[in-house]
Amino acid sequence: MPSAENQYIQGNESLKNVIDGYNDPWLKTEPIYGPKPQPDHARGLRWSTFSDTQRRKLGIKPDEKSPYTVRDDMYFPYLTAEIKCGNQALDFADRQNMHSMCIALRAVVSLCQAAGCTEEVHRRILGFSISHDLGGLRIYGYYPEIDDGKVSFYRWPVAQPNIWVKENRWTCYQFVENLDRKFLPIHTHRLMRILEEVPDPDEDVSGIDVDELDSQVSMVGLQERPGYRRAASSQNRGLQPELRMMVQTLQQQLADQKEREEKRAAEQKEREEKLLVQLEQQRLREEKREAEQREREAEQKEREAEQKEREAEQKEREAEQKEREKKREADYKELQDKLLALLEQRK
């Protein structure tokens, strides 16, 4: 199915106030039976759809359940979808869709009861569902019947195409597009018209002291079904859900920012520690190289000293050798002179 948010981003302004939900539990409302619904896909109206006056009339409190909302920022859903697999998948999906859409229709009927105009929705299609499995598709429309205050909900089969047939391949997508183009304006206009008939709670508490406003109830709460809590009529009550959502958004943003900053700080610290380790390793390597260099220089000096010592010894030996040669020459000359002298005497 096409996403409302994506279509709005692409320029479909009619879906500005439409919100999608995917597998979100409907925690803000009471189930009709069994566990709370959790449709695979749901589509409803945003809080921004309604004006301040209309929000006061709805009297929705962020910390309480309401017949008009199913989860945060989704009001009066008009489409649900379930995707199942296995045996009797479509039947199982139909049952879940029936439960979800009965709750959605109950919201509109409750608003009509508060406005005193239940004939507006008697036997009128107020929502649709899509059941889907691997090979099948079922589309239903849902409507209420109101007889002497007793409300019953029914469904009407719209289509059951075979999605494996080529011409039916885009049936689901086209149906949702047509639903948003044709049914959504009717659905929204109907809610606006009904809300006009609901008395403004501020008009009924104008003479009450400001300190007692929190103890008063709105006209919507007085006319709701007995199973729901009454909505207070404080003038600022309509803004509370939006403010709470803004606060939650800001808190989430601050938490995300804090987490990012902590992550950056941790990464920075890790980088600094790695850099310090690298610098220490580099310092140790340089010290080792300097020590080795000094050792080599010392060895070189020692070798040079030994070389000089050997050279000195060599010079000393050469000097001794020359001295011995001179002495031998002198002895030889002296002996020669003696021999010559002896020969002359014999003559």
UniProtKB/TrEMBL annotation:
Position of the signal peptide: none
Annotated TM spans: none
Compositional bias ranges of the Basic and acidic residues kind: 256-275, 282-333
Highest taxon of source: Eukaryota
Record Pfam families: DUF7924 (PF25545)
Region (Disordered): 221-240, 252-333
DUF7924 domain span: 1-194
Family annotation (InterPro entries): DUF7924
Listed name of the protein: DUF7924 domain-containing protein
